[in-house]
Design brief:
CATH architecture of the largest domain in chain B: 3-Layer(aba) Sandwich
Order of helices and strands of chain B: EHEHHEHEHHHHEEEHEHEHHHHEE
Oligomer: heterodimer
Helix content of chain B: 25-40%
CATH class of the largest domain in chain B: Alpha Beta
Strand order of the largest sheet of chain A: 5-6-7-9-8
CATH topology of chain A: OB fold (Dihydrolipoamide Acetyltransferase, E2P)
Shape of chain A: globular
CATH topology of the largest domain in chain B: Peroxisomal Thiolase, Chain A, domain 1
Number of domains of chain A: 1
Number of strands of chain A: 9
Strand order of the largest sheet of chain B: 3-2-4-7-1-8-11-10-9
Distance between the termini of chain A: 25 Å
Shape of chain B: globular
CATH architecture of chain A: Beta Barrel
Number of helices of chain B: 14
Distance between the termini of chain B: 14 Å
Radius of gyration of chain A: 16 Å
Number of domains of chain B: 2
Largest sheet of chain B: 9 strands, mixed
Structural class of chain B: alpha/beta
Number of helices of chain A: 0
Order of helices and strands of chain A: EEEEEEEEE
CATH superfamily of the largest domain in chain B: Thiolase/Chalcone synthase
Number of strands of chain B: 11
Largest interface: A-B, 47 and 49 residues
Chain lengths: 144, 395
């Protein structure tokens, strides 16, 4: 299992390595941040810009809220067999002033979280096939 | 103000899990609404359908599907899709035609047949559809969002699991005698709190099911009602506003909120703004309401709505619930129909079902769930992709 190569489940949404970041965009004119990337038109209604810079978003934030799931969701979620409960957190990024969802790092139960808990971004497996393990961003308590 | 239209008739098919063609349910609701209104189908000038996306092409063109089933009559037709607000959007389009003097009397209908279990996104590989991607990349279902809001209330406002369960117990009791509800079963706190945890902190009995069902109303100009010597229930407002940028609450099916780094948060969040616009249009306020039908996709979500529609201040919903004010017999009963807790969700019919309940309550026809002396009521709902609605009806 550890032999398999790791591939991002989706291209261009996050970096990998020791200190991964989510990849968003920032409007060149008004400076607003977007995740997932906004590249065609600025969604600020007072801005007409269509030019963006790709930016790495803050890789730490505070939990806004969280939930743990005990039932297997429908496709296209690819669930381990047997199903394993997983936790999802909504995390506030202070600089970008936005909330971003993500699963919580493997092995962290909802009881380890509170609104306000400091978390950082990690990249972990979300599913695998015969060829590779596929990864996404997840949130992990800094203290864990 | 003064832009009122009349509701002449309301009709529904019972909610359930029958697995039949959605047209069958819709026609039953249409015929009941027409009979209630005393209007012949052939006198209907426009049929406004709410679309179902789960029943193939006939669902996409629901207005025409019902027109054909009732018998082509040469009426005009429209079909609306606005997620959970579809029925209200169909109603609003119909209302606009009446207020624009394009029609006098219109039939509005929504019906659905739903699959079992979690609502899932459209099939296929859809790497640019956030509704598909949230499932693939995070396992993020609709109850995920309901659970995030519920947990937020617990951590910030001190809501308890007992509060959430109490909403279910209340609504189950309200819906006991509603013939159109799917579930007619009383629940104890213990039964709710012992039901399996689905999306912590929400349990199985606190997350609404998906249901089959249908609802319809016949609306007309006030003059049309007057000519027929009917003293109708009136629609004083239909709000179908979109959010204001930046939308800073995490909403289905999004991965993130908008950023408030450059443009500050609006004065009102989206759900607040839905009801606010309805009150503004009606020239009424929360204090004028006798009852409310709100979208309890989860038990906890009903508490958010208390605040969003102005029944109490931010963080005070638990107090309002515990006081009994939102129970029938209290100051401002909420979800007298039994709400989604007793119905489950039949997406294109649900916003119209809320309006049907207001009609029966305001006419004094709600039987054992009647709110005494009801003069005005408000509905509120919200769904995917910036859709929401609020309808205010008055006597």
């Amino acid at each position: 299992m550890g032999e398999k190569k790791q591939l991002p489940a989706i291209e261009g949404w996050f970096t990998t390595g020791a200190n991964p970041h989510l990849l968003g965009t920032r409007c060149k004119q008004c400076g607003t941040y977007f995740f997932p990337k906004q590249e065609l038109f600025c969604r600020n209604p007072d801005c007409q810009s269509s030019e963006f810079d790709e930016v790495e978003l803050s890789r730490t934030g505070k939990v806004w809220s969280y939930t743990e799931h005990f039932y297997q969701p429908p496709e296209p979620y690819i669930s381990p067999d047997p199903f394993e409960p997983y936790t999802i957190a909504a995390v506030e990024l202070e600089k970008e002033k936005m909330v971003i969802l993500g699963q919580v790092a493997d092995g962290i139960a909802h009881s380890q979280l509170r609104a306000g808990t400091d978390v950082e971004l990690v990249v972990e497996r979300i599913y695998e096939d015969d060829e590779a393990e596929y990864t996404v961003w997840k949130w992990k308590p800094v203290a864990a | 103000m003064a832009k009122e239209v009349a509701i002449l008739g309301a009709g529904m098919h019972q909610w359930g899990k029958w697995g039949k063609n959605f047209v069958e349910y819709g026609i039953k609701a249409c015929n009941d609404a027409l009979a209630d209104a005393g209007v012949e189908w052939k006198d209907i000038q426009v049929i406004a359908g709410a679309e179902t996306v789960r029943n193939g092409y006939p669902g996409y063109v629901a207005g025409a599907t019902f027109a054909e089933a009732l018998g082509w009559s040469g009426s005009r037709v429209s079909t609306s899709y606005a997620a959970c607000a579809s029925g209200a959007q169909a109603l609003n389009n119909a209302r606009a035609m009446i207020l624009a003097d394009m029609a006098d009397v219109i039939l509005v209908v929504g019906a659905d047949t739903t699959p079992k279990g979690f609502l899932a996104p459209s099939a296929g590989e859809r790497w640019h559809d956030p509704d598909w991607l949230r499932f693939r990349l995070m396992g993020c279902t609709n109850p995920t969002y309901f659970a995030l809001y519920a947990r937020r209330r617990m951590d910030v406002y001190g809501a308890t699991e007992e509060d959430f369960a109490a909403v279910k117990v209340k609504n189950a009791r309200h819906g006991l005698a509603n013939p159109y509800a799917r579930y007619h079963k009383e629940f104890s706190m213990e039964q709710v709190l012992e039901s399996p945890m689905v999306a912590d902190p929400l349990r199985l009995f606190e997350i609404c099911a998906t249901s089959d069902g249908a609802a319809a109303v016949v609306i007309s100009s006030l003059e049309y009602a007057r000519k027929r010597k009917i003293d109708p229930i009136k629609i004083a407002a239909v709000s179908t506003v979109t959010p204001i940028y930046p939308q800073t609450t995490i909403e289905m099916p999004n991965f993130s909120t908008d950023s408030a780094a450059v443009v500050p948060e609006p004065v009102r969040g989206f759900k607040d703004s839905i009801a606010h616009e309805a009150y503004r249009e009606a020239g009424l306020g929360p204090e004028d309401m006798s009852l409310a039908e709100v979208y309890d996709l989860s038990s906890a979500l009903e508490l958010d709505w208390y605040e969003n529609i102005g029944l109490c201040g931010r963080g005070e919903a638990e107090k309002l619930l515990r006081s009994g004010d939102t129970t029938i017999g209290g100051r401002i009963p909420v979800n007298t129909s039994g709400g989604l807790a007793c119905f489950g969700e039949a997406v294109p019919a649900q916003a119209l079902a809320q309006v049907c309940e207001l009609v029966w309550q305001l006419r004094g026809q709600a039987g054992s769930r009647q709110v005494e002396g009801a003069k005005a009521g408000i509905t509120a709902n919200q769904g995917l992709f910036g859709h929401g609605s609020s309808v205010i009806c008055t006597k």
